[in-house]
From TrEMBL:
The keyword Oxidoreductase applies. It comes from the Bacteria. One of its GO terms (molecular function) is oxidoreductase activity. InterPro entries: NAD(P)-bd_dom_sf, Sc_DH/Rdtase_CS, SDR_fam. Keywords: Oxidoreductase. PANTHER family: 17-BETA-HYDROXYSTEROID DEHYDROGENASE 14-RELATED, SHORT-CHAIN DEHYDROGENASE/REDUCTASE. This is 3-hydroxy-2-methylbutyryl-CoA dehydrogenase.
Length: 264
Protein backbone atom coordinates (compact mmCIF):
# COMPACT_ATOMS: atom_id res chain seq x y z
CA UNK A 1 0.00 0.00 0.00
CA UNK A 2 1.37 3.40 -0.91
CA UNK A 3 1.08 5.59 2.15
CA UNK A 4 2.27 8.77 0.51
CA UNK A 5 -1.16 9.37 -1.01
CA UNK A 6 -2.67 11.27 1.95
CA UNK A 7 -4.44 8.16 3.19
CA UNK A 8 -6.49 8.42 6.35
CA UNK A 9 -5.20 6.50 9.36
CA UNK A 10 -6.48 5.89 12.89
CA UNK A 11 -4.16 5.12 15.79
CA UNK A 12 -5.66 4.05 19.11
CA UNK A 13 -3.65 4.87 22.21
CA UNK A 14 -2.04 7.47 20.00
CA UNK A 15 -1.30 10.08 22.67
CA UNK A 16 1.70 8.24 24.13
CA UNK A 17 4.14 5.37 23.80
CA UNK A 18 3.91 2.97 20.88
CA UNK A 19 0.78 4.62 19.52
CA UNK A 20 2.31 8.07 19.53
CA UNK A 21 5.41 6.86 17.68
CA UNK A 22 3.21 5.09 15.11
CA UNK A 23 1.04 8.15 14.57
CA UNK A 24 4.11 10.34 14.18
CA UNK A 25 5.60 8.01 11.55
CA UNK A 26 2.33 7.79 9.60
CA UNK A 27 1.90 11.57 9.63
CA UNK A 28 5.50 12.08 8.50
CA UNK A 29 4.77 9.78 5.53
CA UNK A 30 1.80 11.91 4.49
CA UNK A 31 -1.14 10.21 6.19
CA UNK A 32 -4.01 12.13 7.73
CA UNK A 33 -3.99 10.73 11.26
CA UNK A 34 -6.75 10.55 13.84
CA UNK A 35 -5.64 9.96 17.42
CA UNK A 36 -7.92 7.86 19.65
CA UNK A 37 -7.12 8.22 23.35
CA UNK A 38 -8.72 8.93 26.73
CA UNK A 39 -6.03 11.48 27.61
CA UNK A 40 -7.69 14.55 26.13
CA UNK A 41 -5.01 17.09 26.99
CA UNK A 42 -2.10 15.07 25.62
CA UNK A 43 -4.12 13.82 22.66
CA UNK A 44 -5.30 17.26 21.57
CA UNK A 45 -1.80 18.69 21.81
CA UNK A 46 -0.20 15.85 19.86
CA UNK A 47 -2.89 15.82 17.17
CA UNK A 48 -2.31 19.53 16.64
CA UNK A 49 1.43 18.93 16.46
CA UNK A 50 1.12 16.40 13.61
CA UNK A 51 -1.78 18.13 11.84
CA UNK A 52 -4.25 15.42 12.79
CA UNK A 53 -7.51 15.19 14.68
CA UNK A 54 -8.09 14.01 18.24
CA UNK A 55 -11.00 11.78 19.24
CA UNK A 56 -11.65 11.16 22.92
CA UNK A 57 -12.29 7.42 22.83
CA UNK A 58 -12.75 4.79 25.53
CA UNK A 59 -12.01 1.43 23.90
CA UNK A 60 -14.19 -0.30 26.51
CA UNK A 61 -17.29 1.45 25.16
CA UNK A 62 -18.86 0.49 21.83
CA UNK A 63 -20.65 3.85 21.69
CA UNK A 64 -17.44 5.78 22.36
CA UNK A 65 -15.47 3.86 19.72
CA UNK A 66 -18.19 4.28 17.10
CA UNK A 67 -18.36 8.02 17.84
CA UNK A 68 -14.59 8.24 17.43
CA UNK A 69 -14.71 6.55 14.03
CA UNK A 70 -17.51 8.87 12.94
CA UNK A 71 -15.52 11.97 13.95
CA UNK A 72 -12.33 10.71 12.29
CA UNK A 73 -14.14 9.86 9.05
CA UNK A 74 -15.87 13.22 8.98
CA UNK A 75 -12.50 14.94 9.24
CA UNK A 76 -10.38 12.72 6.98
CA UNK A 77 -12.65 10.34 5.10
CA UNK A 78 -12.56 6.55 5.32
CA UNK A 79 -9.46 5.31 7.11
CA UNK A 80 -7.36 2.81 5.17
CA UNK A 81 -4.94 2.14 8.04
CA UNK A 82 -5.82 1.17 11.59
CA UNK A 83 -3.10 0.78 14.23
CA UNK A 84 -4.52 -0.42 17.53
CA UNK A 85 -2.22 0.22 20.51
CA UNK A 86 -4.68 1.12 23.28
CA UNK A 87 -5.19 -1.45 26.02
CA UNK A 88 -6.97 -1.89 29.34
CA UNK A 89 -5.29 -4.72 31.23
CA UNK A 90 -4.77 -6.19 34.68
CA UNK A 91 -2.19 -8.20 36.58
CA UNK A 92 -2.26 -10.69 39.41
CA UNK A 93 -1.34 -14.24 40.35
CA UNK A 94 -3.93 -16.96 39.99
CA UNK A 95 -3.52 -17.77 43.69
CA UNK A 96 -1.52 -15.56 46.06
CA UNK A 97 -0.88 -15.17 49.76
CA UNK A 98 -2.88 -12.47 51.52
CA UNK A 99 -0.90 -11.03 54.42
CA UNK A 100 -4.04 -9.39 55.82
CA UNK A 101 -5.96 -12.63 56.29
CA UNK A 102 -2.97 -14.90 56.64
CA UNK A 103 -4.33 -17.20 53.96
CA UNK A 104 -4.44 -17.70 50.22
CA UNK A 105 -6.79 -15.98 47.80
CA UNK A 106 -7.48 -16.34 44.12
CA UNK A 107 -7.52 -13.58 41.57
CA UNK A 108 -11.16 -12.52 41.01
CA UNK A 109 -12.75 -13.71 37.79
CA UNK A 110 -14.07 -10.18 37.25
CA UNK A 111 -10.51 -8.88 36.99
CA UNK A 112 -9.68 -11.41 34.30
CA UNK A 113 -12.93 -10.65 32.47
CA UNK A 114 -12.13 -6.92 32.45
CA UNK A 115 -8.70 -7.63 30.98
CA UNK A 116 -10.26 -9.89 28.35
CA UNK A 117 -12.56 -7.01 27.42
CA UNK A 118 -9.75 -4.45 27.35
CA UNK A 119 -7.29 -6.60 25.41
CA UNK A 120 -9.12 -9.07 23.16
CA UNK A 121 -12.67 -7.73 22.84
CA UNK A 122 -11.49 -4.14 22.36
CA UNK A 123 -9.11 -5.32 19.62
CA UNK A 124 -11.98 -7.03 17.83
CA UNK A 125 -14.20 -3.98 18.37
CA UNK A 126 -11.90 -1.46 16.70
CA UNK A 127 -10.69 -3.87 14.00
CA UNK A 128 -14.19 -4.92 12.94
CA UNK A 129 -15.51 -1.35 12.83
CA UNK A 130 -12.53 -0.32 10.70
CA UNK A 131 -12.97 -3.35 8.45
CA UNK A 132 -16.64 -2.58 7.85
CA UNK A 133 -15.76 0.91 6.69
CA UNK A 134 -12.90 -0.31 4.51
CA UNK A 135 -15.13 -2.95 2.92
CA UNK A 136 -17.31 -0.24 1.41
CA UNK A 137 -14.38 1.73 0.01
CA UNK A 138 -12.86 1.51 -3.45
CA UNK A 139 -9.71 -0.64 -3.91
CA UNK A 140 -6.44 1.26 -3.70
CA UNK A 141 -4.33 -0.79 -6.10
CA UNK A 142 -4.32 -3.58 -8.68
CA UNK A 143 -4.25 -6.18 -5.90
CA UNK A 144 -7.65 -4.95 -4.79
CA UNK A 145 -6.32 -3.79 -1.41
CA UNK A 146 -8.75 -1.71 0.60
CA UNK A 147 -7.00 -1.36 3.92
CA UNK A 148 -4.59 -2.59 6.55
CA UNK A 149 -5.15 -3.37 10.22
CA UNK A 150 -2.22 -3.63 12.65
CA UNK A 151 -3.02 -4.93 16.13
CA UNK A 152 -0.70 -4.79 19.12
CA UNK A 153 -0.19 -8.11 20.81
CA UNK A 154 2.75 -8.84 23.13
CA UNK A 155 5.63 -11.23 23.63
CA UNK A 156 3.64 -12.18 26.75
CA UNK A 157 1.20 -13.95 24.44
CA UNK A 158 3.85 -16.66 24.01
CA UNK A 159 6.09 -15.99 26.96
CA UNK A 160 3.85 -14.83 29.80
CA UNK A 161 5.38 -14.19 33.19
CA UNK A 162 4.12 -14.66 36.74
CA UNK A 163 1.09 -12.44 37.27
CA UNK A 164 0.31 -12.18 33.55
CA UNK A 165 -2.63 -14.57 33.23
CA UNK A 166 -5.07 -11.73 32.36
CA UNK A 167 -2.65 -9.87 30.09
CA UNK A 168 -0.88 -12.81 28.47
CA UNK A 169 -4.17 -14.66 28.01
CA UNK A 170 -5.76 -11.63 26.34
CA UNK A 171 -2.80 -11.08 24.04
CA UNK A 172 -2.76 -14.78 23.17
CA UNK A 173 -6.40 -14.39 22.13
CA UNK A 174 -5.40 -11.44 19.93
CA UNK A 175 -2.80 -13.65 18.22
CA UNK A 176 -5.40 -16.36 17.67
CA UNK A 177 -7.72 -13.83 16.05
CA UNK A 178 -5.28 -12.51 13.46
CA UNK A 179 -5.23 -15.36 10.93
CA UNK A 180 -8.97 -16.14 10.91
CA UNK A 181 -9.76 -12.44 10.66
CA UNK A 182 -7.32 -12.07 7.75
CA UNK A 183 -9.10 -14.99 6.06
CA UNK A 184 -12.50 -13.50 6.82
CA UNK A 185 -11.44 -10.30 5.08
CA UNK A 186 -9.38 -11.72 2.21
CA UNK A 187 -12.08 -11.28 -0.42
CA UNK A 188 -12.39 -7.63 0.63
CA UNK A 189 -8.69 -6.90 0.25
CA UNK A 190 -8.18 -6.03 3.93
CA UNK A 191 -5.01 -7.25 5.60
CA UNK A 192 -4.62 -8.03 9.31
CA UNK A 193 -1.35 -8.42 11.22
CA UNK A 194 -0.15 -8.09 14.80
CA UNK A 195 3.09 -7.00 16.41
CA UNK A 196 4.27 -8.70 19.60
CA UNK A 197 6.55 -6.18 21.31
CA UNK A 198 8.85 -7.21 24.11
CA UNK A 199 9.84 -4.72 26.79
CA UNK A 200 9.67 -1.21 25.38
CA UNK A 201 10.49 2.19 26.85
CA UNK A 202 6.87 3.30 27.11
CA UNK A 203 5.62 5.72 29.83
CA UNK A 204 5.01 2.97 32.44
CA UNK A 205 8.53 1.62 31.94
CA UNK A 206 10.05 5.10 32.01
CA UNK A 207 8.22 5.66 35.28
CA UNK A 208 9.92 2.55 36.64
CA UNK A 209 13.26 4.04 35.59
CA UNK A 210 12.62 6.84 38.09
CA UNK A 211 11.10 4.69 40.86
CA UNK A 212 13.26 1.59 40.57
CA UNK A 213 16.34 2.23 38.40
CA UNK A 214 17.95 -1.11 39.27
CA UNK A 215 14.88 -3.04 38.09
CA UNK A 216 14.71 -0.93 34.93
CA UNK A 217 18.36 -1.68 34.19
CA UNK A 218 17.81 -5.39 34.83
CA UNK A 219 14.95 -5.46 32.33
CA UNK A 220 17.21 -3.98 29.67
CA UNK A 221 20.04 -6.36 30.51
CA UNK A 222 17.68 -9.33 30.08
CA UNK A 223 17.45 -8.58 26.35
CA UNK A 224 20.08 -10.59 24.41
CA UNK A 225 20.73 -7.86 21.85
CA UNK A 226 20.58 -4.95 21.82
CA UNK A 227 20.90 -4.98 25.62
CA UNK A 228 18.26 -2.36 26.31
CA UNK A 229 14.53 -1.74 26.15
CA UNK A 230 12.98 -1.19 22.76
CA UNK A 231 12.37 2.35 21.56
CA UNK A 232 8.86 3.26 20.35
CA UNK A 233 10.17 4.44 16.94
CA UNK A 234 11.43 0.88 16.39
CA UNK A 235 7.86 -0.36 16.86
CA UNK A 236 6.64 2.36 14.50
CA UNK A 237 9.17 1.28 11.88
CA UNK A 238 7.62 -2.19 11.79
CA UNK A 239 4.14 -0.67 11.63
CA UNK A 240 5.19 1.24 8.53
CA UNK A 241 6.57 -1.89 6.86
CA UNK A 242 3.39 -3.82 7.61
CA UNK A 243 1.37 -1.02 6.03
CA UNK A 244 3.59 -0.67 2.97
CA UNK A 245 4.22 -4.34 2.22
CA UNK A 246 1.01 -5.83 0.84
CA UNK A 247 2.37 -9.38 1.14
CA UNK A 248 2.36 -9.19 4.92
CA UNK A 249 -0.95 -10.72 5.97
CA UNK A 250 -2.13 -12.94 8.82
CA UNK A 251 1.16 -12.58 10.70
CA UNK A 252 2.04 -12.18 14.39
CA UNK A 253 5.59 -10.85 14.55
CA UNK A 254 7.79 -10.68 17.65
CA UNK A 255 9.79 -7.48 18.10
CA UNK A 256 11.78 -8.13 21.25
CA UNK A 257 15.55 -8.30 20.81
CA UNK A 258 15.33 -12.13 21.11
CA UNK A 259 14.21 -11.99 24.75
CA UNK A 260 12.83 -15.20 26.23
CA UNK A 261 12.18 -14.63 29.91
CA UNK A 262 12.29 -17.54 32.37
CA UNK A 263 9.72 -17.44 35.19
CA UNK A 264 10.96 -15.61 38.29
Amino acid sequence: MKIEDSLAAIVTGGASGLGRASAEALAAAGCKVAIFDINEEAGEAFAKEIGGVFCNVDIMSEESVEAGFAKAREAHGQERVLVHCAVVAAAGKTVSYDKTTGGYKRMPTALVARAAEGVFTASYRVASIAALGMANAEPLNEDGERGCIVLTSSAAAQDGQIGQVPYGGGKGAVNSMVLPMARDLMDLGIRVNAIMPGTFATPPMLGMKERAPAMYEALGNAVPFPRRLGNPPEFASLVMELVRNTYFNGQCIRLDGAIRMPPK
